[in-house]
Amino acid sequence: MSFRKEIKFILHKSKEDNFLKWIQNNGAKLLYKQRNITSIYFDNEMSMMYHDSVEGIVPRKKIRLRKYNQNNNFLFEMKISSTDGRFKKSEKCENFKSLLDRGIVDYQYGLCKPQIIINYNRNYFSYKNFRITLDKDINYLKYYKDNKFSPAFNDDEIVAEVKGIKVDQDFLDQNFPFTSARFSKYCRGVDLINQEKSSSINL
Question: pLDDT tens digits, residue range 36-73?
Fold first, then answer.
């Protein structure tokens, strides 16, 4: 099992050109064509995965179904954070409709059901001995079992992420002209959706 390091950089969408210019000027190479990603995140009725992520508790995990572009070939994925590092398990999911309907029983979190849908566009770059991804046009929707979707929450932020087994933090601090920050799309989506609910109640 290989643990990888992930360092995220949060930028306003107005800074995308600055990021791409840095990429071009420093010899980073485009790995793939842009892909559209849809992820459906699961959690239990107490939102424990959300709270563990916000508080930085380890071990913790995120459970999701993910597909690329406009197809229904879902992957079942677990992102696990432990004291040793982070790693991801990913496998083809043939029974995704059943998982969406019945949920997933996890030994750590119990019965988990789909909570939110996150959709965005991702670009992939290779730089030095690690990979950089750039996620933009991020939007969040509350998941409903009857396929009734809430309004989409569109994000003004874009997320750059450096990933690799050996990522030199000192090198990034000296050469990458952006500030790293903790960021979870799942947590941000939950916050935006709950904020909207709170505003509706106050009205």
Answer: 999 999 999 999 999 999 999 999 999 999 999 988 89
- pLDDT at position 154 is 92
CA distances from 56 to 49, 92, 114, 122 (A): 10, 29, 22, 25
Residue the block writes with tokens 């993910």: 66
What's the rounded mean pLDDT across residues 114-118? 96
Q: Alpha helices of the chain — where are they, by DSSP H?
A: 16-25, 48-55, 96-102, 169-175, 185-202
**Among 48, 113, 37, 111, residue whose Cα is nearest residue 75:** 37
Distances from the Cα of 63 to the Cα of 2, 25, 108, 169, 197, angstroms: 19, 37, 11, 28, 24
Locate 20 and state its tokens.
Answer: 């791409």
Query: Taking the C-alpha atoms of 164, 169, 174 and 179 in order, what is their torsion angle to the nearest 10 degrees?
Result: 90
